[in-house]
Specification:
The structure is a homodimer. Chain A is α+β, with helices and mostly antiparallel strands. Chain A folds into two domains: 137 residues, Jelly Rolls (Sandwich); 78 residues, Arc Repressor Mutant, subunit A. Chain A has eight helices and nine strands. The relative contact order of chain A is 0.13. Chain A binds a DNA duplex through helix 7.
Amino acid sequence: MTIDMNLESIKCDCKQCKLKSLFFSHVTIEELTDICDIKEERAYSKGDIITKEGDVIKEFLYLKEGLVKLSKSTTEGKDQIISFSKPFDFVSLLSIFSSDVYKYSVSAIEDSHVCILDLNLVKNHASKNAMFAMDLMKRVSEATDKIVLDNLEIRRKHLKGRVAHVLLYFAKYIYEKDEFELPVSRREIAEYIGMTTENVIRTLSEFRKDKIIKIFGKDIQIVDKKRLEGISEFG
Amino acid sequence: MTIDMNLESIKCDCKQCKLKSLFFSHVTIEELTDICDIKEERAYSKGDIITKEGDVIKEFLYLKEGLVKLSKSTTEGKDQIISFSKPFDFVSLLSIFSSDVYKYSVSAIEDSHVCILDLNLVKNHASKNAMFAMDLMKRVSEATDKIVLDNLEIRRKHLKGRVAHVLLYFAKYIYEKDEFELPVSRREIAEYIGMTTENVIRTLSEFRKDKIIKIFGKDIQIVDKKRLEGISEFG
DNA sequence: AACAGCTTATAATAAATATCATAAGTTTTT
DNA sequence: AAAAACTTATGATATTTATTATAAGCTGTT
């Protein structure tokens, strides 16, 4: 059960990185070299914890590949999932500019590659290169905006609508197809949309009985998308 | 019902403004003069809409005085309140760096003074002055962080805990005393914590019967704070 | 292979919350 | 001042959701 056991260090050339333009479109080659010189890239396996709530933030990290969840522990020891993030939309940690410690944990729900930069170095360059700072701001804003809006959406829905919402979320946003393998357990879905595991299972079964989806363990196939959208929108 | 009827334009010297250091600690006097030269300051009355969901964002605005709510309309025509903001923590709009249009409405729930700057001008200066950009980023991050964490808190609580949470929120965070006038209706509290108006009223009545609070219309007095905190924390 | 621990599944029951109905008190409009 | 519209209030009932119990299906470990 050791976390670091299956971590794998990878060599990577930042100048070649496809994601470079996303995060660092306004840094010079010199700045990029400086930042990337002491960078690290790690492979995490499904289930690994990437950063832990409460730890001091020393690194600027972004997801290159895979899928992660942001979560927070409640005082009763239960977890609340805040959001899921894939490479394109996951930029470092939300708290990076507002706190010294992580306010949420990040863990891999699929095998993931994370690029780890020195936070002070990144901040240092941002405080000198305004365009770079603006880029970062846009990214952080977009990420948090998405979280706030998504939470509002979920909040106003009933059980069925919430489960429909999650299924459509994975189908549309994460996998971009109507047949996919759920990267999370029913319990995690429950932690995300704020209901009990039993009711998530029950609702999925109901959708299956109503021929809206097909279920084969973790594999989900959306059969009647229109109807699922209707349930998500109106209950 | 005209919105602009009771708006009042105010003269104000930015260099003297107490809030200057908060938002513009890293701008030069020249930049400040440039930005403030075409600024406007407006007084809004309780109930006035300051910005409307869907409108194009042309202005950078911040609250100098008063209390506002951020809200969003659902497809069914109901409102969801995202957060309340007082001068110190309300920095422009959250969407400002991630969208061209407002994603939420902002309205005054107490008489408020808002300072209105030209958004392009502010962005322009931020994209040249990295320290200023970093300041803005920190502010936006702090504001959104607070919203996300607060929403999580509320989400994991039951009715009583949620109502207790709101009362303590106003007491601790907004008014800093245990006796205050609620700036919102019971319906708005319901829109904030995601429950029905009837249940908000019922829960408040229950707290009154249990001698935890005293109610005189909108005036609330927290009598047994320890107990209210217990309810907020554990239900 | 047998065991423990976890996830998925289903049903019955209990608890939480919403809806509906009704009324008194306030505020706004006419 | 009266009427209309809204807010606060309370009770009864219906609906939604959680809890408890029980079991089968996996997964990893010894």
